[in-house]
Amino acid sequence: MDRILTMNFFHRARRLLVFAALTIGLVAHAADPARPIIAQAALAETPAQRIAIITSLIGSGDESIQGLLAAWKEDALFVYTAPDGAKIPVQLSGDKDDQDAQTAARVDTGQPLLSPAGQPLRLIARELTAVEHTSALRRAMKAVLDLLDLSTPNLKKRISAIQTLGFAQDAEKLPALRARQKLETVPAAQLALREAIALIGLKDASTEVKLASLQELEALHPIGSADALKTALKEAEAAPHPSLTAAARAALNAVDRHLTTVNFFGTLFRGLSLGSILLVVALGLAITFGLMGVINMAHGEMIAVGAYTTYVVQNVFGPGLALSPFGFSFHLPGMNTGGWVYESYFLFALPLSFLSAALVGIAMERTVIQWLYRRPLESLLATWGVSLFLQQFFRRVFGSNNVQVSSPSYLSDNWTFNDIIFGWNRVFVIGFAGLIVLGVWLVLTRTSLGLLIRAVMQNRNMASCMGVRTERVNMLTFGLGSGLAGLAGAFLSQIGNVGPSLGQSYIVDCFMTVVVGGVGNLPGTVVSAFGIGLADQSLQQILLNPVLGKITVLVAIILFLQWRPAGIFVTKSRSLEG
Fold this sequence. Notes:
Elements: H1 2-31, H2 34-42, H3 47-55, H4 64-73, E1 77-81, E2 87-93, E3 101-106, E4 122-124, E5 129-130, H5 135-146, H6 155-168, H7 174-183, H8 187-201, H9 207-220, H10 226-238, H11 242-291, H12 299-317, E6 320-323, E7 330-333, H13 339-343, H14 345-367, H15 376-398, H16 409-412, E8 414-417, E9 420-423, H17 424-446, H18 448-458, H19 460-465, H20 470-492, H21 507-517, H22 522-543, H23 546-563, H24 574-577
Antiparallel strand pairs: 1-2, 1-5, 2-3, 3-4, 6-7, 8-9
């Protein structure tokens, strides 16, 4: 009785396994519709039939096509004869065992080849019949692979494939592009198809087709078509053909006008992003220098503290970090996270960057700065010494070479609108800079700490007589300014590499921004940062030389300060008047 029950159990289990295998096979078949077609081509009797079947795959977006056709060309597809005489195309892969056998997978389903007993089979290549391929068949495969990405679900990949075919101007690809045009629903891909078809039309022998293509390109005015239009203009002038010449010139003029518009708004965006970076970097200095009157030459190193904090947090979320400070090696353990958990490291790095830089700033204020208030020359020299010490400290701990901070996916991509590229990291800096300015303004004008800061900065002696603990206010103010510099370092780590001299690249721009805006004036710092950023990017575009553009900005700032030494906005207080 027990034996009968056991046999029934095994029969039911086997039926369940067979049902599961069939279900998996159907799912794979539905997901990879090209597999049975390639299997059919492998079993075709003549090369002409194989070419016809393979050609039918043109325009398909099945991602399995590339691997299967590559295996076919590398003689890794075989025909296996089952015990019942059925011919089954299989693909051999994996390492060979002692008998030279490899894992066999069915071409039509992608599932392992099973024996009648339901066990996976391992086959020997030399005992099978390889699926043949000819030069004509390989050309057909190449045509399929060239057009494979036309139907991929990945929009960027699909648009890139369309643009590649258009720039090649191969008339043989025109039917595939027209077929895809009837199926495409995404506006961006539809525009790319129109552009590609028009570019191919420029090589047509018919004057009417060329004229229609030029009119289409004039309406679309794609920047990438400029070279093709210049070639078409030369050919029309050499013919000569007045109507084609006029159409080519009109299309080129439309492209030039569009390029001017793109450059204008692109320069405006880059100027805003550069101004936001300057604003975030200079905002802390506007507090320590503008409000406290301390010339802090180590402000750039506060930026580096925030950037290195971001680097450390990233590695803690990842595999960890090996450090060798002052000859002692140790490994900072990591959490080995992945996916969205790992990419959330930047959200934790932002407050930690602020805190780490604020603590370093407070320590510097307590040990050095507090003895040097109202002694600007001594504070300049002392903070310069601190700057050199911190740079050397970074080199001993993290090494002299720059380190790379990888941006999370939500800061790595970009939006493209009418050919204007908006990087997500720069959009984030612009938005967050606004939040920081609002936060600093609220702290200084709507909190008791802000009231104490303003009282101490306007008249330190009077505030002390009123019972204000000026030493604590000084410490917190310097910590706030240093913390803002640390936030700037976190932002800069997403734009470039992090190194010991990171802050030195921005310290001069920081002082220029604060002085031009008006010492101690936060609205002036905002206006100055965006003004310098826009001027810098605009002059680089006009002069076509980044170095000459920066020199021109510096000369303009010097001349402006000669005319208006107090900056854009003059801050009036008793401490400044007396």
